[in-house]
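Tokens for chain A. Residues wanted.
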């Protein structure tokens, strides 16, 4: 029992237990963005106003190509009890994979292409991205 606990402690200390491989590249979306939104028109008897809620990071998506092409990847481990989502990538894919950071209280998102040649990405529940 003592050996098992010691091994588990070493695994967690190395970052392997939280979906962050030791030799992977890490990306992180900004946790909050500042936005300015306006209404095109105000319906009927309604009054326009501004919400005081911040635009904080909600979720990270991985796309096969630019996000405007709407090709969101499904996680390979969907439905498992893992504390991360695993995305298997095709290193020979002629299109580039992209990450997209989606925020609460806005329709805006941030995105950027990932380097070519990656074989997988893990997105943790705290929205950290580890790819190799």
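Reply:
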């Amino acid at each position: 029992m003592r050996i098992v606990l010691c091994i588990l402690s070493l695994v967690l200390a190395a970052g392997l237990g939280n979906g962050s491989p030791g030799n992977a590249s890490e990306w992180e979306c900004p946790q909050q963005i500042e936005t300015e939104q306006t209404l095109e028109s105000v319906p009927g008897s309604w009054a326009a106003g501004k919400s005081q809620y911040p635009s904080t990071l909600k979720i990270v998506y991985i796309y096969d190509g630019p996000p405007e092409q709407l090709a969101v990847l499904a996680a390979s481990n969907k439905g498992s009890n893992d504390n991360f989502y695993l995305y298997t990538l095709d290193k020979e894919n002629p299109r580039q994979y992209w990450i997209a950071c989606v925020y609460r209280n806005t329709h805006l998102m941030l995105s950027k292409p990932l380097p070519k040649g990656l074989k997988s990405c893990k997105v943790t529940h705290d929205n950290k991205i580890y790819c190799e």
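Residues 23-34+54-132 form one domain. The first helix runs from residue 2 to 13.
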